[in-house]
Amino acid sequence: MLEILKNRLKQGHRTLKFPKETPKLAERYRGRPIIDAAKCAADCSACAESCPTGALQMHPPRIDLGACLFCPACSSACESGALRFGQDHRLATRTREELLVDGGEAKLAAALDEKLRKLFGRSLKLRQVSAGGCNACEADLNVLGINVFDLFRFGIQFVASPRHADGVVITGPVSANMRQALIDTVQATPQPRVVIAVGACAISGGPYAGSPEVLGIPPEIKVDLFLPGCPPHPLTLLDGLLRLLGRIEDEGRISSSST
Ligand code: SF4
Ligand code: SF4
After folding, report:
1. Fewest beta carbons within 10 Å, which of 13, 88, 132, 135?
2. Ligand 2 centroid to 232 CA: how many Å?
3. Mean pLDDT for each 10-residue chunk of the chain (259 residues)?
4. What is the layout of strands, in order, in the sheet containing 194-198?
5. Which ligand has its closest atom nearest to the C-alpha of 138?
6. CATH number, span 33-86
């Protein structure tokens, strides 16, 4: 017992000071893509041709962050160094259109309106639906519960029943077998509710797009927050959730040169 207590004292406090401070991420982390159009040869589309999901087009440059797997075949194919991945984990948006970035300014997720912030700002219960996919998105959502990220300190919790939830988190491309279960879960969640799409699969089908088994989020389900990535980094998830609740109060705009 004494040994355990000694080790705990030695380890100290492990919870990140996020969002007050953002930890330095590993060198190999691939965050928001950065395109330097000046370095891009006019007759070259090697990057776009290498993209497995069609997320990238050049001349003019545009990346669909909702379809991007951050794999990064494009930056490896680019010989001029015009395309690279930065360290910026902030990717959340409120609309699908805002995930289409062109190398200029990008708009980050705005907060819910005042009425919903009052309701959910200090206590948000979420039911997660795994609608296909590889389960890596679920793994990163689980990671939010460990003491490093400590999601609970913000009043955000995952619950077992949609009837006890304020919102639904969707992962996976929504396979034919999961479509009705997803609709039922959303309908069982009381109004007002929020719907959050996590990962390339939920947003665009990701690597499964085009499969006849992949139906996508039904159009009658309105998504309030898009969290891209494959899977999204836990900080991307936490940043997006806190933006939605109005607990990160920067201007919500970034330049593509931010790292
Ligand atoms: S990192 Fe994204 S844009 Fe680049 S090749 Fe992979 S999926 Fe396509
Ligand atoms: S978005 Fe990527 S990590 Fe998430 S479920 Fe789909 S394939 Fe897996």
Report:
1. 13
2. 9
3. 86 88 94 90 92 94 96 94 93 97 86 96 97 97 96 97 98 98 98 98 98 98 98 98 92 64
4. 156-158, 124-130, 167-171, 194-198, 225-227
5. 2
6. 3.30.70.20
